[in-house]
Structures are given as structure tokens and as C-alpha cells.
Amino acid sequence: MKFLVVTGMSGAGKTQAIRSLEDLGFYCVDNLPPTLIAKFAEVCYKTGGQIDKIAIVADIRGRSFFDDLLGTLNTLNKEGYMYEVLYLEATDETLVKRYKETRRKHPLAPDGRIINGINVERKKLKAIREKADRIINTSKLTNKELNEEIIKAYGDEHQIDSPLLINVISFGFKYGIPLDADLVMDVRFIPNPYYIAELKPYSGKDKPVKDYVLSKSETSEFLDKFTDMLKFLIPNYKNEGKRQLIVAIGCTGGRHRSVAIANRTYEVLNHLGYHVTVDHRDINEDVNRGAGKR
């Protein structure tokens, strides 16, 4: 079991760190009173491995409760619980700047100067810092760079260099654009098989409709341009730390054109070596409802 206690200076990036740990599959608890950590560890160990990665944030927001953290860590040692302490810090100048940008008050100086609160906090955290297994100074780190540090430190082998997952989704505009779409492409400019009697009963997964849609010059030109755009975007999205890209391709009802184009896009991206899936959200909606264009 991985049991991680996250602490450090206010404004040093603990919120971003906990988000990164959640993405790595950690069960995260923010601002748990230190007196409860040992009991929480006991409960987690009794799950028999169902919860095997835990991260707990404990900092001076806990007020007088935080003073119990050192004693709690000693208790964990005595009871044989394995844990690590991650300590986040930053320079005074960086912390002051971050507080001024967010216009938040320092928890140890609610009515005074930010720097005074920082100084008091550093003194209170000195002993905890000395017990830390890992210290990350976030002064010069962007959120993306901090995320990369967390992944390298606490990610499993497959998570350290995990590929960008691309989900290609076909949909019908009349049923709404997928809420989680990153890119939305409208292929209603392609001639509609719905108006051809012998094609109308089929979907874009069937050869007659697929051949019709892909044979159009508009389709060929679109796919060339769209593929070039994706080749440019995907590496840049990955460089910015994106883990999932949802590409939504829509026609009127989500049964004919969008399905054929989504499948072809999947084939192209799969051939290029990307980790890609395809889903046809509305392929049967018009059939089930008995009306509408595709």
C-alpha cells in the first residue's frame, strides 16, 4: 500500500498536487485532522487491498489539530504502518505573489501582512520538513511541471509515460453536442445518404453507406485536412499534460455521415499508432424514435 502524507507551506501547490495524485488513482482526503490519520490508516489497511493508494493532506489549516501531526507520525511508526511524507514549499517572494494574485488571506495572518504569516508558518513546519521523504520546491514550477514531478515520484510504471487516450465519438446535432468534447467537427456539408432510398435503412457502419460517404470528394479533402490538424494538435496537447482528448464528429442525426467519418478517423489514428477508441453515441436514436434526418 502507498500511504502518503502531503503537507507544506500554504500556497506552495498542495491543491494541484492532490489533483495529480487523484489522477494517479490515489484515494485523497484533504485537511484531515492528524489525530484521525492513524485510525484512517487502520481502516484502509483492513480493506484487503481494495484501497491501496492513499494521500492525506494535513497542514496549518487544521489550526491547533495540526500540532498533533508529529505525534501521529510517531504513532504510525510504532504501529508498523509504512508511509511517506511529501513536503511542498516555495520562496517567500513566490508565496507572497501567489497570495496577492488570488487575493486570499494567509491562514496565520488573517488581518496582517502575508509575509508575517509565512514566517510563522515556516517555524511551525520546521520539524515536519525535517521528517519529509521528498521535498518539492514549486517556486519555478508551472502546474504542468508539478504534475510531471508528482507522476515521476508516485506514478506506476505505466503512468509515468502513459499515452494520450483519444476518444472519437459520432453524434447527432439534434440530440446535442457531447458535453465533454474537446474538438467538435460538423460533417453536415457531406451529401446525406438519408435521402437515397436504398441507403436510408443502413448506418455509417454498413458498407453501402460507408462507401457512399467516403467516395465523395468533399470527404476526401476534409479527411486530409482533418488528419493534418490532428497530427499537429495531438503532440501539443500531450506536451501540455492532457491525458484524454475527446473528438466529437456530428451530423444531423448521428447515424450516417458522422458514423462513417468517425470510423475512418479511428482507423487513421490507430494506423498512426495513437491510443484511440471510437463510440457512436446516437447511431440508433432515429431508429428508436422513428423519425428524422441522419
Could you give the topology of this structure?
Layout: E1 2-8, H1 14-23, E2 27-30, H2 37-45, E3 53-57, H3 69-78, E4 84-89, H4 92-102, H5 114-131, E5 134-137, H6 143-154, H7 157-160, E6 165-172, E7 183-186, H8 207-215, H9 217-239, E8 244-251, H10 257-271, E9 275-280, H11 285-289
Parallel strand pairs: 1-3, 1-4, 2-3, 4-5, 6-8, 6-9, 7-8
Question: Can you describe this structure?
Answer:
- With 294 residues, the protein is α/β, with parallel strands linked by helices.
- The chain folds into two domains: 2-159, P-loop containing nucleotide triphosphate hydrolases (Rossmann fold), CATH 3.40.50; 165-289, no CATH class.
- Helix content is 43%, strand content 18%.
- It has eleven helices and nine strands.
- The strands form two sheets. The protein has a five-stranded parallel sheet with strand order 2-3-1-4-5, sandwiched between helices. Strands 7-8-6-9 form a four-stranded parallel sheet, covered by helices on one side.
- Helix 4 (92-102) packs across helix 5.
- The protein is elongated.
- The relative contact order is 0.13.
- The model has no long low-confidence stretch (mean pLDDT 89).
